[in-house]
Amino acid sequence: MSDHTDPHHRIEPLPARRIHADAAEGLAALLVDAVDSGASVGFLAPLSPAEAASWWRAAAEETERGVRTVWASYGPDGAVSGVISLARAGMPNQPHRADIAKLLVHRAARGRGLGRRLLETAERAAAAEGRTLLVLDTETGSGAEALYRKAGWTRAGSIPGYALTPDGVPHPTTYYYKVLERGRDSG
């Protein structure tokens, strides 16, 4: 972890009932903040709190089914400061892999190592449950790319015009992967 890690943000897994309870407030606000700050995380601006809450309710249903695990970080004031998801592959020939999804850190909490702590939390959990391969995608040229490279992720390649930025402009997406050893991160 970096010397700039803020230890005042606690990270905890969120059961489905907690995601449902927090969907319309803290989790929705975090997702809206990410889109408002230009993060390409699947939504166009302006993202309404209702649309963000709806996405989180769907994530809660995936959590109930065991398809997704969500961790949230909370600042000293108790507000949601970040989140990350581990989405398990659903096909029978992919029990060894999962995707990292929706790594979000509120603008007010960025630059203190929280994104790295959230990423490490998901990586450790994936390795502990026997996952040996993690995959993620991010907007090419985004600040997140530096985080993933520093955390030992390998760039697999980019696809031009893959997704629209929040303002509707086609932009390339870069895929990364990380190989894990069972029970611990190999990076």
Overall tally of structural domains: 1
Broad structural category: alpha+beta
Total beta strands: 8
Radius of gyration: 16 Å
Estimated helix fraction = 25-40%
What fold name stands as the CATH topology? Aminopeptidase
Strand coverage percent:
25-35%
Identify the overall geometry: globular
Instruction: Indicate the CATH architecture.
Output: 3-Layer(aba) Sandwich
SSE layout and pairings?
Layout: E1 10-14, H1 16-36, H2 49-64, E2 68-74, E3 80-88, E4 97-105, H3 114-128, E5 133-139, H4 143-150, E6 154-164, E7 170-181, E8 184-185
Parallel strand pairs: 4-5
Antiparallel strand pairs: 1-2, 2-3, 3-4, 5-7, 6-7, 7-8
Can you give me a brief rundown of this structure?
The protein contains four helices and eight strands, in the order E-H-H-E-E-E-H-E-H-E-E-E. It has helices spanning 16-36, 49-64, 114-128, 143-150; strands spanning 10-14, 68-74, 80-88, 97-105, 133-139, 154-164, 170-181, 184-185. Strands 1, 2, 3, 4, 5, 6, 7 and 8 form an eight-stranded mixed β-sheet that branches.
